[in-house]
Amino acid sequence: MNHNANAIPAVLEARQLTKHYQLDFDLFGRPRKTVNALDDVSLAVQRGETVSVVGESGCGKSTLGRTLLMLQPPTSGEVYLEGERVDLLKGQDLRKRRQKAQIIFQDPYSSLNPRIRIGASLAEPLLNFGLVKDEQEAEPLVVQLLRKVGLPESAINRYPHEFSGGQRQRIAIARALAPAPSVIVCDEAVSALDVSVKAQIVNLLRDLQAETGLSLLFISHDLAIVENLSHRIAVMYLGRIVELGTRKAVIGAPCHPYTRVLLSAVPRPDPDAPVTRNLLQGDVPSPVNPPSGCRFHTRCPYAQAKCRNETPLLRQIDPDHAIACHYDL
Question: What pLDDT digit, counting tens, does each position of 170-202 carry?
Fold first, then answer.
């Protein structure tokens, strides 16, 4: 959150990142609709840190992850990887930098080629980035990667369909680790898995981070998972960050009405705890036509006239905690 000149640069950073998609073009090629997927998002991930981005579906979390990795160009704003501005890079230069930032997708089955054996799949990034000269040289490294994620050497000769969902996600993690990145974006990486497998994958990511100093940007709608994994949490609503802080601050003392609602929906293990479910009014407004002022005002029980007319900026309420709300609730 601080831009100290002497500070070590963040591993991955967005500065005032905006991403709009044009839709539904007229006869002259002019867009009739614009989807405001991200608006003025600033976020940094430090070395060895896990920053989780949470919010309902359609709030811009995945767009943020993909834009930070330059899988799609930003409309405006800046992206930095290990202190180097990467949104200006093209072609070979960008490809080279990609070695340092990898992604794990939600569905490991569609991200693994069903016709390629696991060994070849894991060797591919090593060959791509010129880390080995052929598959033979890659093999010991592939075996090492499989062991790192808790899979046997024999997995090398098997195909994706021969593994369970959890095992396939371990393979996807191994592939993301192959080029020795500084940061991995986990885009809903555990949401398709059942509860016990989710916990195993989260523990694996935590162990790998402890072992390698890896940074993680963990995108999820599941606050229970996020609570166990994060150092800091960013809560997003309709393309904007509405709350940002340490896990303790955001989970323990949430200040934005939206964060409070999200947290009230997380099941708690204490059967005697009072149930305080603040269910949200209405649906998420369309990002094609987001509300004026604070985008949450249409569903917020505390909204005043100011909320409808003025966009609240993200402001520090203490050193570990920032919110985008006009009021201290």
Answer: 999 999 999 999 999 999 988 878 888 888 999
DSSP string, 22-50: EEEE-TTS-EEEEEEEEEEEEEEE-TT-E
Q: pTM of the entire structure? A: 0.90
| Residue 228 neighbours by CB under 8 Å, 6+ apart | 202
Beta-sheet strand order (sheet of 31-45):
31-45, 12-25, 76-81, 84-85
Q: Which residue has the tokens 């996600």?
A: 169
Q: Which two tokens stand for residue 40?
A: 């003025």
Cβ neighbours, 10 Å, residue 273: 8
Q: How far is CA 170 from the centre of its chain?
A: 18
CB distance 287 to 37 below 8 Å: yes
pLDDT digits (tens, 9 = 90+) for 28-80: 877 778 888 999 999 999 999 999 999 988 889 999 999 999 999 999 999 99
Distances (CA, A) of 171 to 146, 247, 324: 7, 29, 39
pLDDT higher than 70, residue 238? yes
Q: Which residues pair with 117 in a beta bridge?
A: none
User: Mean pLDDT: which of 27-36, 125-134, 243-252 is highest?
Assistant: 243-252
Q: Which segments within 26-152 are labelled E, that is strand?
A: 31-45, 50-54, 76-81, 84-85, 101-104
**Which amino acid appears at position 52 of this protein?**
S
Residues 308, 253: contact at Cβ < 8 Å? no
Question: Greater confidence, 265 or 59?
Answer: 59
Closest CA to 201 of 182, 213, 218, 215: 218
Integer CA distances (angstroms), 117 to 120, 158, 179, 221, in order: 6, 5, 19, 32
Which residues on neighbouring strands pair with residue 81, listed in sequence order?
12, 84
Contact 193, 205 (CB under 8 A): no
What is the token pair recorded at 311? 């966009």
